[in-house]
Design a protein that fits this description.
- The chain is an alpha+beta fold and 840 residues long.
- It is 50% helix and 16% strand.
- The protein has 25 helices and 24 strands.
- The strands form 4 sheets. Strands 15, 16, 17, 18, 19, 20, 21 and 22 form an 8-stranded mixed sheet that branches. The protein has a 6-stranded mixed barrel with strand order 3-4-9-6-8-7. A 4-stranded antiparallel sheet has the order 14-23-13-24.
- Helix 15 packs antiparallel against helix 19.
- The longest helix has 39 residues.
- It is globular.
- It starts with a helix and ends with a helix.
Length: 840
């Protein structure tokens, strides 16, 4: 063993001397590897957090969550995903207390609330949780204590809060006397019980709340839900549930064990749905199922959206590191030609093949480790950029960390070792055969035919991979361009948006209504503002508000009320957005809470239920037992949730007629560029009350870009990968052509002496590699079309045979080949025949 380490140490010293003698080669190889390994480390950092990493809790593999199926009618409030992921609070308590297969069950929902410390109010992410939340997860406090079952007693009776570690450290400066002090939540005093552990964020994947609040305080934390009495309503679903399996219990056994209880509880709840058809009752009970799902990584609606983009980016990074590996292998073979005499001399002096192989592997390992180190230096910055692009997060509010941890280090070390072994194979095979006589006779730089074939094959493979990456980038660029060119149904230019929620400052419902209306009026009077209005359902932000509607003259075949988009707006909303009014009128200040109830519907709603826009006017709709709201107008359809999908049937109602008003999203139309008006908007709102928070103030153009955040991220990162791939292929091609030209100096001199034209010499030098690149490009084109078919869910308006993408994938590599071959071809054409013939 001592001899092994002695030999290894000697190999390391010798390898360092060799690399120091060739600084140009060493720097080129290290930078090349850093690009590929660093990109893999950056993407894996996010890939691991989103798709692989378990929650930092006790025994995360024992955690499960639930999804249900079957009929439903009532209110649903969600933070993403399908309604089947959410449950009512009474159902949660029944499932928790009456099951026989779990050791415990918790409930949680994410939301935002106004947190005020030292008279500084901010709209922050919070999590509303059941009293057993921390206990079931097996967590211990960093300070004070965490919630217990005694902190979930009765509605409005538990004004206590647990702070996240990050909020305690940043906002309270890590004060150890924080326990027992008061934090204002939406203007209401909450006593600080303790601080959550440092390494824990939430049981919801990718969520980082600043505070945890008892579920019994939901009416304070989420005041818009108070009218529904969600703590007692079986018809309001809004909570996600997490349970811990009993020891030895599998998910299949748990699902089977929960089936009788689930059907019994659904039968009990059927009493709340009277006057329903037999088919509805059957779907509600007999055809309803409760599925038990693995939850070790935490429920995250965003995970489904990020999964495919991350798989695509990880695939691109793997292709890039493969190109880096091939490139370094080519560089090593070019360098090997100059070391032929050295290696032959070592063989002649008695060196064994194992020692030569060991030496070459150590040199490769040093290059790989150096490349990994350099790559890890810039990986966090790349990861942070990716997180912001993919999640559209503002700086400082990223849902995922960009730091390098032990898992990323281990992954990067594995990639560097594997890469080192792969690119070291080329010089190992080159020097594994002893050919002392020829090696000692040959001039430095002579290479075998096998080595030359490998170099050409490597360059061809690099060109093919660069074409493939370029095609992928082209597909995402075309998708982004198509989305940006979409007509969204209203004018996004010269439009500013922000959220204003007076409830986080402790305002009651009536004062909230007055504040929102007054703020809109004050902003409308600002110089340069041509219009202002507000809504509770913002455009192109991923949000959606639905409700069940009764429609005059319409009866669903399944005896279920239509579930339509339900939007509350202030007067002049459509004129402010410049959303076309197709029939009737929009709301005015006269449509107040004491006036007859009115609504405006969109064209999709009018056509589906009334046949035309004019046919909808004067008809009745309603959210209660009978239709009591008259349709007074019809507006054009818009892209609402995102840029890909058009809003379905929607009902717009006056904010002034809302029984329980809440915070709103304000839109401001300007005459000129909207950026200068933003500061004046903040001043106008703060002049009304210093505690009001203007949140997420941005132009609508920026909101559109944010809505296309994933597509923009894929396009930007795809272009980056493709550019690096083309650069690597160009470097590899240039190296091979330059070396080949040098090797054929004598041959070229003979040809020129015998009368060959210099143009013919250029063709001689370039022809073979041009053919190789053409073959590589042709082979890569079908792969691009296969990629378009495989990733079509991530594309928009792009066909499998997108002509612009295919043309770019052919033209750019062709230009790259021409540029890379220019200098070697020029050198070949300028060779002096007399000087070449004198060269040995």
């Amino acid at each position: 063993m001592a001899a092994f380490f002695s030999h290894l140490l000697n190999d390391v010293r010798y390898a360092l001397r060799q690399l120091r003698r060739s600084p140009g080669f060493a720097i080129t190889a290290v930078v090349t590897l850093a690009l590929g390994i660093g990109a893999n480390a950056a993407i894996f950092t996010l890939f691991d957090q989103v798709l692989l990493r378990m929650l930092p809790v006790s025994q995360p593999h024992e955690l499960v969550r639930f999804e249900w199926s079957g009929s439903y009618a009532g209110s649903a409030s969600s933070f993403g995903g399908e309604a089947s992921n959410y449950f009512s609070y009474p159902m949660y308590k029944d499932l928790r207390d009456r099951n026989q297969v779990f050791s415990g069950m918790l409930a949680a929902v994410k939301t935002s609330a106004g947190l005020s410390w030292n008279n500084q109010a901010e709209n922050d992410d919070v999590e509303v949780v059941s009293g057993n939340y921390f206990q079931l997860l097996g967590l211990n406090p960093a300070l004070g204590r965490l919630f217990t079952a005694q902190d979930e007693t009765a509605k409005g009776a538990n004004s206590v809060v647990v702070l996240s570690y990050n909020y305690w450290r940043t906002k309270l400066a890590g004060a150890h006397d924080a326990v027992g002090k008061v934090l204002l939540v939406n203007g209401h005093p909450f006593t600080i019980l303790g601080v959550a552990p440092e390494n824990f964020s939430s049981a919801i994947g990718g969520y980082q709340p600043n505070a945890f609040l008892p579920v019994t305080m939901v009416d304070v934390v989420m005041p818009w839900m108070a009218p529904r009495d969600d703590l007692n309503s079986h018809k309001s679903i809004w909570l996600t549930l997490v349970a811990r399996l009993k020891p030895g219990m599998s998910m299949l056994q748990a699902e089977a064990g929960m089936a009788p209880l689930w059907h019994a509880l659904r039968n009990d709840e059927l009493a709340f749905y009277k006057s329903r058809s037999e088919q509805y009752k059957k779907n509600f009970t007999d055809n309803s199922h409760l599925r038990v799902k693995e939850d070790s990584t935490g429920f995250s609606p965003n995970r489904a959206d990020l999964k495919m983009p991350l798989i695509i980016l990880m695939s691109m990074a793997v292709l890039l590191v493969a190109m880096c590996c091939i490139n370094v292998a080519t560089l090593l073979l070019l360098r090997a030609a100059g070391r032929a005499r050295e290696m032959s001399m070592r063989y002649a002096l008695g060196a064994k093949r194992a020692r030569i192989v060991s030496q070459l592997l150590v040199e490769g390992a040093l290059l790989g480790l150096a490349g990994a180190f350099v790559g890890l230096v810039f990986a966090p910055a790349v990861t942070q950029t990716m997180v912001r692009l993919l999640t559209s997060a503002d700086p400082g509010s990223e849902p995922y960390a960009a730091g390098i941890d032990g898992r990323v280090l281990l992954f990067t070390l594995g990639v560097s070792i594997l890469t080192s072994l792969l690119f070291s194979v080329a010089p190992v095979l080159h020097f594994s055969r002893r050919d002392l006589v020829n090696s000692l006779r040959q001039s430095a730089g002579t290479a075998s035919r096998g080595t030359q074939r490998f170099r050409k094959l490597a360059v061809g493979l690099q060109i093919a991979l660069s074409v493939l990456l370029l095609g992928g980038a082209g597909l995402f660029m075309r998708t982004l361009d198509n989305l940006r060119q979409q007509e969204v149904g209203f004018n996004v230019t010269k439009l500013v948006t922000f959220s204003l929620d007076p409830t986080i400052s402790g305002f009651d419902q009536e004062r909230t209504r007055q504040t929102v209306v007054s703020a809109v009026e004050a902003i409308r009077r600002l110089p340069g503002v041509t219009g202002a209005a507000a809504t509770n359902d913002p455009e192109l932000s991923g949000d959606s508000e639905h409700s069940d509607f009764i429609i005059q003259g319409y009866k669903s075949p399944e005896d279920e009320n239509p579930h339509l988009e339900s939007v509350r707006i202030t007067p002049d909303y459509f004129s402010t957005l410049q959303q076309p009014l197709l029939a009737g009128r929009e709301f005015t200040a006269g449509d107040s809470k004491d006036a007859p109830k009115v609504a405006v519907v969109n064209l999709a709603m009018a056509i589906q239920f009334f046949g035309s826009a004019q046919g909808a006017l004067g008809r009745l709709v309603g959210e209660g037992a009978t239709p009591d709201t008259t349709i007074i107008g019809v507006v054009g359809d818009v892209k609402h949730k995102d840029l890909r999908t058009t809003l379905g049937p929607a009902v717009y109602q006056p904010y002034l007629q809302q029984k329980h008003p809440q915070g709103m999203y304000v839109y401001v139309r300007t005459a000129q560029s909207p950026e200068p008006v933003q500061a004046e908007i903040r001043q106008a709102v703060h002049a009304m009350d210093a505690t009001l928070v203007v949140d997420s103030l941005r132009t609508m153009t920026a909101q559109v870009d944010q809505s296309a955040g994933q597509e923009r991220a894929m396009a930007i990162l795809g272009i980056g990968f493709a550019a690096l791939a083309i650069l690597l292929a160009a470097v590899g091609l240039y190296g091979v052509l330059a070396y080949s030209t040098e090797q054929r100096t004598r041959e070229i001199g003979v040809r020129l002496a015998l009368g060959s034209r210099r143009a013919g010499v250029v063709v001689l030098v370039v022809r073979e590699m041009a053919i190789i690149s053409a073959i590589a490009t042709v082979l890569a084109l079908p792969c691009i079309m296969a990629l378009a078919r495989l990733f079509r869910s991530q594309l928009y308006g792009v066909s499998t045979y997108d002509p612009l993408t295919l043309v770019a994938a052919v033209m750019v590599p062709a230009l790259m080949v021409a540029l890379a071959a220019a200098l070697p071809a020029r050198r070949a054409a300028s060779i002096d025949p007399a000087q070449a013939l004198r060269t040995e």
